[in-house]
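Kindly inspect this chain:
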Amino acid sequence: MAILKNKKISSAEKLIHLEEALASSSRFGEEFKCLFAYYWHWYCAHWKLLFVVLSLVLTLLFTFVIPSEADYALSINKILEADTIPEPNQMIGFLSWTAEYAYHLLAFISLWALSKLGKSKLLRLASISVLVTLISSTIVVRVSKVAFGRLRPEPAIKMACEDQFVPLNMKHKFHSFPSGHTSSAFSTTGTFFALNPWLGAPFVAYACTVGYSRVHLKQHYISDAIAGATVGTLASLPFIAYRRRNKNTNI
């Protein structure tokens, strides 16, 4: 790992050394540190691409989607006054809850157990990837929530006010943008997709449903879910890239 401290070596070269380190490592602690470093240097090597994608998504959201959500709370209040809005479905509430801890914990345990049974290094790295990707997406989401300070739909409905942003806000009700549940669901789904696109397909459907559940429960706007899905997907790209660069590694 000492070679990674050499500032003269590019991030792309450091990725190659980390891949070699991952291939030779056999302990969880070593693999976690190597994979975490791999994520970091992958982000550094591709920061321009990440910046362009995030800028494009934010531009589209703030230009077209978010303006259309400005009077969402007022519209819902009119429906409430007419007493025609149904109560949130309990199954949807449970689905939303799974994206907090259950999905990621189950994914980690399942991949780790399968790696032990099949003596598969790739599955062991995939289980670690679940943790590293979740950490990466969570950091971005938490910082973004405070930075944007968007009022959640539910309190906006109760206060009968329009959509509003109060930047640098630490209050939970102002942490709508982006959706953390959606982001985490897509980040873990990215690991399954990296292993096999066909395996990942149903999990992509699950992640999309989690995004819908957050909107249905009035915890987020559609734009929040889209932003969360974007963050989660981008957070999972390093492991997807690692898998593609090491196609000869069998499960």
Q: What stands out?
A: Residues 42 and 118 are 29 Å apart (CA to CA). The chain has a mean pLDDT of 90. The two ends are 26 Å apart (CA to CA).
